[in-house]
Amino acid sequence: MSFDIAAYSKAFDKFIINMEKLHDMNDPGLIDAISELCSILHIGKISIMVYESVSMEQLDKGTEKIVFDLGEFDPEHCLRLRESIGNGNVVWYSFFQTIDSDDWTEDEKHRIVVFEKAFFSFNGRSRVMSMIDNLTYYDADIGIPNLHYFIKTADQLITSGQISDFGSCYFNLKRFSIINQHIGRQKATDVMKIFIKQLSDKLNEKEIVCRVSGDNFIALFEKEHVNIVNEHLGGIGITYDTDKNQRVFVSAYAGYYMIPDNCHSSDEIIDNLGIAINTARNVMKVNSIFFDEKLKDSRNEVKMIENEFIEAIEKDEFQVFYQPKVNLKNYTICGAEALCRWIRNGEIILPYRFIPALEQSKSICTLDFYVLERTCRDIRRWLDEGRPVVKVSVNLSRRHLGDMDLLEHIISSIDKYNVPHEYIEIELTETTTDVDFGDLKKIVVGLREAGISTAVDDFGIGYSSLNLIKELPWNVLKIDKIFLPDENDSNTQKYSMLKHIIALVQDIGLKCIVEGVETAEHVRLLKENNCFLAQGFYFDKPLPVSDFEKRLDELKTLL
Ligand code: C2E
Ligand code: MG
Ligand code: MG
């Protein structure tokens, strides 16, 4: 069919006239302005790809905006045209042909080029720029600025010498994936938006709250407003269903950095905030921390531990200690937990000094498998020596959960020493993210199928809820020592919680053990509540292998 030049001219005029009326590229009138021309030129889709710079273009790291899409287009037939804008931005316009139409003729291709040029110039540089700003500096999902905007603003404040008036903060919403699971993604996103909007409303127009990714945010605020930010991040209740008056409590982990006047770059701010939030969340396990130079030293210590770790493993500097678990019906040992110790220059280093550092990288996984193998090697030897053997539990860090082959890896480590699976238990702490939850489920189910028992460690200090625990086939739940009263503790609430937790755990069919049992009174409380498994200093500290073997041998006399 020959090209209808009259219809084309009419459509082109309409396009020119209507484009003038548009505010920006998001204007709903845009489709109307271009659709006739697209139909005549057999265009099924137009997309615009914006790159911040030529190097981003080379890496193909850009942002795409679809301005026209019939839903049917031929990806094989596409005309791509490049425009560069003075400030280094590069824009690619891609025109896709409609399905089943004849290939574009040279004449039609030429008209598409003219269309593109007109489109580009009619948009006007400023409109393209504002679109680029929109694409580059805003998070479309929740409609607030993004990390690029934070960087741009911070760099401007540094250049204008005003940066030391500001404080900065990096925050991560707590348990947000659990909120996602409980109320659904759509409502959870609304909750997130409200939480951020309410924070922004408390600040002035010079101050910004930007989304980094997922549930991570970064903010700049005037120093005197730090308490406002801190208080908001401490938590607020947000109504997500007005009809049913349902609310959810949202709070955040935060790292703060009060910016000094010798700050030279936004990178420095982001790095220091990263150190602060990481220390808060992963090392100190507190809600928030203000950056200071000492944190940098602790970061260096983390690096030092990392560096020395490989050598320490090679030199066999890690040892496995065993802490007995005791049956309160007859006070015999009925199990043990393998706990590692770093023996460095004759000094025993406890896990709290190196585990958090190793958990920041995958080194913890190397250590955990080292401990698992050493434990299996010891059990094998005890079996071969004819000693009574008990089930030994080994801690696995949550860091393993992303490992696709974790299950096979655990089983092959145990089988390598030919240890019957019933002698091993794996302790894992509860997880808070839904991504982890899927991985965790795979492991717990897989271990059960392999006859290896699993325990939820440290119940009570994380975010574990019995509801989530019920979802997986755990064998044992270890109640943390925080539920045990101190000697001069008159807190009856703790006792009442302990009592109810024990009852609930047993009710859902799990074995229940309490750790951190230090006094005769603790033992009495457990027995009073029908919990007959205990681990703690009242009976034994974690013991070097030779001492633990003596405890095992005591069992012989009972046989
Ligand atoms: P956890 O798994 O909850 O281990 C129990 C901790 O409580 C041990 O500390 C143990 O010595 C301590 N404990 C036992 N009874 C009592 C008591 O009566 N009172 C008090 N105050 N504490 C008691 P430890 O050995 O210092 O280990 C601390 C944590 O380090 C462990 O907590 C575990 O999370 C981690 N950890 C230890 N070894 C490993 C390992 O091989 N791999 C991994 N991933 N983590 C490990
Ligand atoms: Mg443990
Ligand atoms: Mg524990």
In short, what is this structure?
The protein has 18 helices and 22 strands. It has 559 residues and is an alpha/beta fold.
Sequence-ordered SSE layout with sheet pairings:
Elements: H1 5-21, H2 29-40, E1 43-51, H3 54-58, E2 63-69, E3 74-84, E4 90-97, H4 106-137, E5 138-139, E6 144-145, H5 147-159, E7 166-173, H6 176-183, H7 185-201, E8 208-213, E9 216-222, H8 226-234, E10 236-241, E11 246-250, E12 252-258, H9 266-283, E13 288-290, H10 293-314, E14 318-327, E15 332-344, E16 347-349, H11 351-358, H12 363-384, E17 392-395, H13 406-416, E18 424-429, H14 434-449, E19 453-459, H15 466-470, E20 476-479, H16 492-507, E21 511-515, H17 520-528, E22 533-535, H18 545-558
Parallel strand pairs: 12-13, 15-17, 17-18, 18-19, 19-20, 20-21, 21-22
Antiparallel strand pairs: 1-2, 1-4, 3-4, 5-6, 7-9, 7-12, 8-9, 10-11, 14-15, 14-22, 15-16
The structure holds ligand C2E and magnesium ion (2 copies).
One magnesium ion is lined by residues 337, 395, 427, 457.
Low-pLDDT ranges: none
Global morphology = elongated
User: Can you identify the CATH class of the largest domain?
Assistant: Alpha Beta
Distinct compounds present: ligand C2E, magnesium ion
Number of domains: 3
CATH topology of the largest domain: TIM Barrel
Radius of gyration, whole Å: 31 Å
| Main β sheet profile | 8 strands, mixed, barrel
Strand order of the largest sheet: 14-15-17-18-19-20-21-22
How many helices? The count is: 18
Query: What percent of residues are in strands?
Result: 15-25%
Strand segment tally: 22
CATH 4th-level superfamily of the largest domain: EAL domain
Which architecture name of the largest domain does CATH use?
A: Alpha-Beta Barrel
User: Helix amount, in percent?
Assistant: 40-55%
Average pLDDT figure? 89
Give the termini separation: 98 Å
Structural class: alpha/beta
